[in-house]
Records
---
Amino acid sequence: MPQVPIEVQLSTLPNNPGVYQFYDSEDKILYVGKAKNLKKRVASYFTKNHEYGKTRVLVKKIRLIKHIVVPTESDALLLENNLIKKYRPRYNVLLKDDKSYPWICIKKERFPRIFPTRKLIRDGSEYFGPYTSMKTVRTLLDLVRSVYPLRTCNYDLAQGKIDAGKFKSCLEYHLGNCKAPCEGLQNAEEYHRQIDDIRQIIKGNFKSSLQYFKHRMKALSGEMKFEEAQRIKDKIDILENYQAKSTIVNPKINNVDVFSIISDEVFAYVNFLQLSHGSIVRSHTMEIKKKLDEQDQDLLQLAIVEIRQRFGSQSRELYLPFDLAIGADLKVTVPRLGDKRKILELSERNAKFFRQERFKQIKIIDPDRHTNRIMAQMKTDIRLSEEPRHIECFDNSNIQGSNPVAACVVFKDGKPSKKEYRHYNIKTVDGPDDFASMEEVVFRRYKRLVEEAEPLPQLIVIDGGKGQLTSALKSLDVLGLRGKIAIIGIAKRLEEIYFPEDPIPLYLDKKSESLKIIQQLRNEAHRFGITLHRNKRSKAAINSELEQIEGVGRKTAQDLLKRFKSVKRIKAAPLEILAETVGMAKAKKIYETFH
């Protein structure tokens, strides 16, 4: 069958919601997407000028378009998620997680046991979870066992076997951790009432347990059974203390899923908090690697479906950072104020902390990936045409106009390359003229690199505002390098980034890694320049002190310092030793000056 042209395939697409699939010439699936209107969405791939390179490559490879029409946009979202997991197309983000998460099992038995497990057995038992941390499971089970005495043995406690006396109470009974239902000392009705309360605690609802224990405590106090009443009070304290720690918002916020997303050029991080009775009963952050120029709205939509399926969430209300069409049966709230806004901000903080931890781990485990990410981010933030793998920064240093010097520091892949640092003594400028000094240094630096055929940087950073940047540009113009090297200026007061021929500065986020690299460059250039400046001033002061002596000029002062290393040693030297260097006549004058 001959290949149908893309234009013809596009013309036959319906205007209904659905899922589309792109295939290449070898009939391999490239991409799966959802759409509110299939015709408009798919056509946009072929009519837009895509800035992102991978999207352009994807469009060039498309030879066949298939689609599935569904009743609603939310149905399209579910189908898209299932197809992505089934086919794993090359250009789709993959929301996969092979971890085996722990559950809390209430075993289907006459006297149910409660224990953690990573295996789900379809035998009628109840499973709560999955939990993202075994620590959370242990904390919950420790709480339950500290309040309710439960059996841990795996005997078949049929009534007939208990009546026949087949079991004997174990050490757990004598320690007070079990009421020995194996010997008939606790009936099934009382045991199941405990299990009902435990179900509620696991769900985050402590109300029924607290009400029961408070009623029981008052009854025991009325019967003058104060020791038993105190034991009940201890259980109340344990529950209330745990509830106070776990309740972080208004207890009226019940059965809500909270989602937030933060993203950069390569990855997105979606945090999920599940709330029940004002308590966080689950927290999970998913890392998503971008394949195309996916928007946060699309990534969050896909992640919500995947996470809710994975954790079996039945919540009917979602708190989100922006409005999304998830499904007609789900209520979406975009909090602006109050407790709802606070819980959304907590979710965002969790996503940011997870991102920071991942960056730290990557920096240790995979430094190349860390470097690539930062370079890609700098390219975007500073509007460069290529990644700034080689950056050079210039700084002038003069105090009260004396001993003007300049420094050039070099960073390779975002790290200092100290062997390539250079100092410059200003030769053509008299007095404190930062603009002229910058023009001289930039000219000398790149004239030499061009003459020696050395590689040029991708980015030049000038420590200073618009004036210094303009001076540096003059030198690039003379050398014919204007437009071949990106150049920016950074003003110290508000960390403003200036671009050539743009009077309005750029303000990067204060926490931006791109800004941190630029600040590090500027600080390193300043430190390196100040070091040379101090050395020059120190030597000048020493020379000046010796040259004030009658008959001692610069050459004599230099000879003395070469021999004695410091003025202090010259002062302490005997007349005869001084005479060996400068002759007796000058030696007498020097000796008499210091003595």
---
Amino acid sequence: MLGAIAGFWISLMLLFLVMVMAIAGSVASMVLNSSEQDMKVEKGSILRISLDTQIEERHSPRDIQAFINEEPEPQTLENLIYAIKAAKEDDRIVGIFLNCNGASAGLATRQTLANALTDFKTSKKWILAYGDNYNQGDYYVASCADHLYLNPSGSIDLRGLATSIPFFKGLLDKVGVTMQVYKVGTYKSAVEPFILDNMSDANREMSQYFLNSLWKEMGGTIAKNRKLTLDKVNMLADSLVPFDAPEQFVKLKLADGLKYVDQVEEELKKLTNTKKDDDLKIIDYDSYLVDATIPHSQSNDNKIAVFYAVGDITDAGVTGITAEKMVPEILDLAEDDDIKAMVLRVNSGGGSAFASEQIWHALEVFKSKGKTLYVSMGDYAASGGYYISCGAERIFAEPTTLTGSIGIFGMIPCAKELFNDKLGVNFGVVTTNAGGAFPNIIQPATPAESRAMQGAINRGYELFTSRCATGRNMPQDSIKAIGEGRVWDGVTAKRIGLVDQLGSLDDAVASLAKKMGYKDYQVITYPEHKANFWDMLATLSVQAKASALKEELGAYYPIYMELKRFENLEPIQARMLPMTVH
């Protein structure tokens, strides 16, 4: 109790210090923004987009350690797209300088960015890309540039796609913990790291299929942009081309030339007819947005809501998609006479099946008011992420979106061996009824308890697939045939009926506006950013704890968090296996 009290007051003091710094930063920001507004964007300016940090869907609270270490704030896809679209129509902007320094983002996020840049070029304006060392994701985006340059000592990472999954069964065996698993779906692989030493054949088959599809899209785009064939790109990826001498990248047509930073500056001066001794008019995208005219941001009677659902789906909490917060917000929009249409932007690998059902119901209430619901999928809209999407009138996904994973599972750890044999701790259990102590981690489930748990999982799967069948206007058996927990890429998802159209969030919004008969409209984003003191305190506490654990555990932190995450899960989950495609 004393520790909890001490932790509370320490968190409170930290929050006070952060708020003081935030207020000071806000004042400074207001002064800077004021000067930027006075300065305005000059004619002949270059928009600079630096790919050098994490790219998120939209702004989220910063990690306290990142704040203390003065780490750069993540970029948001929302603002990057706003800037590119505004610059396309802005006569003051003559081109884009894409400075590639190792951004971190999902494939669908990068594809959205690359497509926006390609659309920018239809205005007859140019894009120049430069990088010291291009990572593969940055190069994918940069390949659409009219001029692509590499540092004379740099490299280009082109090696195809891979995914790696840690398996914890060996560790659990050593410490004496057994995972009791209940699931529906041959391909529902989220439980595999806890019961297997390596990938199942079904998981490997599924992963190989969607990786091939993603690479066909990504490699094909690079090939098209660089005027190569996909076979040629595959040959280069197979030959460990990142380790070639820089001159080879030019010979192989992966780059247009080798230049140092000062030489790139001279190239930019030529493109803008800037005199050698004059300074270039370069403005960063975030500064540009202060003075830019953002499409569909002006007040209008025709309003379209864009509701962001990003992160793990939980019943309650301070981060991610929480039913406790999201459900009332959607119900409020259902009663809002100014909002007649909404795009749900989903970027989630799923989570609590119960929470997913509550959000699904709230969206059905929204539709019951005669309002139109579309869905736009980001990097992921899988399992619970698909559950909350399936009722939409129309679903949009990028070709590189991972979706589907229609399946349910539950896991209960049993640590009897750990306590009894390794720690020498025994438990005496007294109950009034047969299942009075279930579930618990000190003894394995009885056959009756296992049957009950599997029955709940089966009912959850029936409900999930029935929601999908109704939403997609397909027989439930057809949904089950493409369900089984299998993850699909966006292109295949469209072919099998899980998705209606390939495209970005902008495409979904434009399509919805056309459906509503809006020639002009205003986009309003939700949920609104509200500075709630207690939410800020809770977030700060969570972030402070995470930062301390990162410092203490180092390289073991991701493994710890993976185990911890499953320890705190609701009993029944609609979740895909967390994975990184790289």
---
Amino acid sequence: MEKLETLLEWGGTKRDIVFLVLSGIALLVSILDMQFLPFDVAWIAILLCGIPIILEAVIGLITAFDIKADVLVSMALIASVLIGEDFAAGEVAFIMQLGALLEDLTVAKARAGIEKLVHMTPRTARRINATTEEIIPAEQVQIGDILRVLPGETIPVDGVIESGKTSINQAVMTGESLPVDKGVGDEVSSGTINQFGSFDMKATKVGEDSSIQRMIRLVESADAEKAKIVGVADKWATWIVVIALISAALTWLISGEIIRSVTILVVFCPCALVLATPTAIMAAIGNATKHGFLVREGDALERLAAVRYITFDKTGTLTYGTPNVVAVESIAQNVSEKEIYMYAASAEQRSEHPLGKAILRCYENHYQDDVVSQQQFQMIPGRGVQAVVKEKEVIAGNIELLQEKQISIPHEALKQAENYFQKGCTIIFVALENKLSGFIALADTLREDAPKTIAEIKKADVVPVLLTGDHENAAKHIAKQLEMEQFYFNCLPEDKLNYIANYQNKKEQVCMIGDGINDAPALKKAYVGIAMGGIGSDVAVDAADIVLVNDDMKQLPHLLYLAKRMMITIKCNLTFSMLLNFIAIILAMTGILNPVVGALVHNAGSVIVIVNSAFLLKWRKKYNCDSK
């Protein structure tokens, strides 16, 4: 059904383009007086472009007494035809349909983000009875049921671990780049992924109460609340119609010449007014596309110009979203830092854990050297790894693993590690022959362009805010590096949505920038949502109004400045078009303009508006983040 609607929509667009081309040719033939038919070929434009306008105006008036710009256009068309000014009628219809087409081309297609979230919802669960194990539909799980989750499976409902240890990828909920170790008594959420160990859990929230279902409802509600901007010509249409009718009636009464009244209706048609906004938007969208932005909503740049805050997700947006080794520390006199690194990387070479893979990758990249072969490898879910490297037993993992192996940790080592904890790092302790020898600190690294980008955003009079699912230390460290005064941590999807709602309830519009599935509700709720397209999830991209295709965040200030410049262009276009209307009305009242000349004046005004908007295509403000 969705594909059929999309096909029909595209078919309608192609039909409109064909009608406009034929109408344009007909008007050209008519004005050059190259008649080859027994009737004025301007009627082709009247029929192809004018009839749809009249029908839409009549339907709007009858069904909802909705007065839009097409009401005045319809009156001008009918009046022009009645007095035999066919070209004027055709020209007005052509310009108005051209404006309508430009507006249609700026409207985004229907998005499927909610459907993708639904597809991510687990379909089955593995329920454990007294003696048997059965696979049941996830919607049949009851509170209190005992479920078993195997490595690689998606957790079907919210619950608490009853037995087993594991690491959970919680990116769908928190956006955290690193998996979280879980054990008995820890809570787990539906939609998150069990990476390593098998565990049994007790269901605590099922069906509509589960985390993934709550997120779906958040996305739906946020999308429904986002208001659409009404076209300027339609917003003022009632006043335009009233003023036009009064002016035309008074002119007819005073002068006694109906042609003057018809001319007033023609010049009152908001042709340039209708073109003022969509032409500027299309030109700005073309400019944004050259700088790596895909604008998915036609009015997104209008909204972006009004934002007061930009809220950033941390992982994958301000950072690269992948852990890297930031420090290697040795606490044993007879073991160097390089040896600590080598033993840990060698032990981790068969690990599937992201931290283990990061240690191996960073070691090989740093030293341009292969690791040493290992034996007796053992993966300990939620703890770390154990292996034999160069005939030495190597244990690499968290502090809980060392405690289980009864390996003592000197006070100085803990103090040294704490410095890295405060910076938001994850620590992997390395023990050789059951004695702690050192540790490796890993962290998600800041994007190279992030500091300059944040600084330039501040110069644009927009306040950057950090919203992250990461813990307090990581959030504080990133905020300090970027000089961001406002930051919030441990944010679940509903927390991000609530923070944005609080800002917007104070009439302080917010732009949200994110990349993860957990960001989708906030991207929908925000006045403008921008998703990182390269590393971003499909759900986040579908929830956004704008997509940063290549993740080049240094272009964000340009987008802000472009949006503000676009609004200046729109205001200039509107001012010019209204001034032109005012002058043309006075000339029509005095009889200087007739309907044909009035239509041509409007045509010239529309061309000027289009040319002025076209300057946006190559516009760029010079600022510090410009690439040379």
---
Amino acid sequence: MPGPGHHNGKMERPKNVRKTFGRILAYLSEYRIQLALVVLLIIVSSGASVAGTAFLQQIVDKCLEPLAEQGLVPALVRQLAKAVALMLGIYVAGAMASWVYSRIMLNVTTGTLFQLRVDMYNKMETLPIRYFDSRTHGEIMSHYTNDADAVREMLSNSVTSVISSGITVVSTFIMMLVYSWQLTIVVILMMFVMIKVVGVVSGKSGAYFVKRQRCLGQLNGYIEEMIEGQRVVKVFCHEEAAKQGFEALNDEFSEAATKANIFANILGPLMNNLSHTLYAITAICGGVLAINGVLSLGVVIAFLQYTRSFSNPISQLSQQLNSVLTALAGAERIFGLIDQTCEEDAGTVTLVNATEDAQGRLLEADRHTGEWAWKQVEDGKTTLRKVEGNVVFRDVSFGYVPEKTVLHDVSLYARPGQKIAFVGSTGAGKTTITNLINRFYDIQSGSITYDGIDIQRIRKSDLRRSLSMVLQDTHLFTGTVRENIRYGNLNATDEEVENAAKLANADGFIRRLPRGYDTMVTADGANLSQGQRQLLAIARAAVADPPVLILDEATSSIDTRTEALVEKGMDRLMEGRTVFVIAHRLSTVRNSDAIMVLENGEIIERGNHDDLIAQHGRYYQLYTGMFELS
């Protein structure tokens, strides 16, 4: 499935190179002192290369030629040895400078990527559910792996290579002008040809490198999706279809990678051959000038060395251009995540622990008391309202996309301590209603109040803390059973964790595990049965001790015997709490205070079990098997 940024297979380049590079520089600004030292060391390294070549001319003209003419004169030998030693010292200093700045850049790169990943993760935690609904897990993970790795490659290698090459080109060009303007003109004319070749080949290569990066993200997303759904693939014998889907994405990735590498690999040999051609032409021209006495032999030899020093950096620049383009495309995707709009939250009402004084007045408590209150501060005055779990929908309409309404003018109420059940066909809007209660999505019209307070006035984190959800698809984290239950309330004691497990009737099977509550849960609970995972999810909800419970097919994965045990625990858990239940098994909703029958986003029937059976409507048809849920 094509992800964002996929446009019918067309190649893409970074949309705004200057802006993206500027933002990378902003991250690097924290290391300005280290970077200044790196630039200084690069100048030393590049300068050493240029200065060493200048000494080559001195050795030839002032030492080797006189030695050839006069023989082994001790003074000339000492002068030659001194010049060679000095040149060697310059090259060693340059090599040391290169080693030091490479080490510094490794630290700068590590620190920068650390901060990028922190910013990505922190932003991800603030994004609305809608963002994750529209992207695969693999695509999001690609930002942390492929894109971050491309940025690392650029910072650790490409940046220093570009700066070093730039300094070398400029300083070498100056020295070439000093030695011979005639030969410099020859080099410049040949350079125009080389730059034109680099521009054409790098343009095509860079575009395919960017496409390769995007295709890799899509491929990773598909692979992760197939790994997660491997059981479903095998159950329905869709192995061949899964292979075909993989092959299609892999072919697109391979095609982009192959073309990118073809152009990138062509560039090196082309530049080498052009460089050799330049060297040969310069040598011929230099030889002619030397024979005619315009230049000395030492100048010609040094100039030829400068020709190498001039063409090699340009070749390196062309090769690094692909890496830079790939990194900028990856950085643009990273910044695309960081720039996503955070989940909006203008709520000011907060949830606090509460207690009552001797006169029955509600007071804020500094510890968990089992009582909760809504805290409102208006005009400097603080008021506390007891959390009761009174939830009211008034004419609520909602659509995941504006042009398609899912709920139509839904009105309902749940009094404190009531159990409200939702039944209906798949897609009728049952789960959508529960998603609106905790503000995973915001409604388009109407209102939802919680204890008389519009939920949009309640801070989202506090609203969700007052709710506990048990979903059909449970998710367990790597850690102990105790830690997974405690996830519902990180401050819960071991005793509270175990009491919650007893409440959910999970204590029995937990104690039969190899290490009891300290048994490690791995791979999303792969070492537990589906029913056991569901029981832990219910225990996690119980330890949170919320005033409102939402059970979305909470017992769908539990066998009938286990379901009976769970329902006993759930009955105890639901005492004094408002509970919303979504269930396909109508046997689990019989004892509900009110049952809402939904169809196409509308409540078509409401009442308790006996009332609805007496109506002989849709619920009666569902219960008696005359109509099946789909």
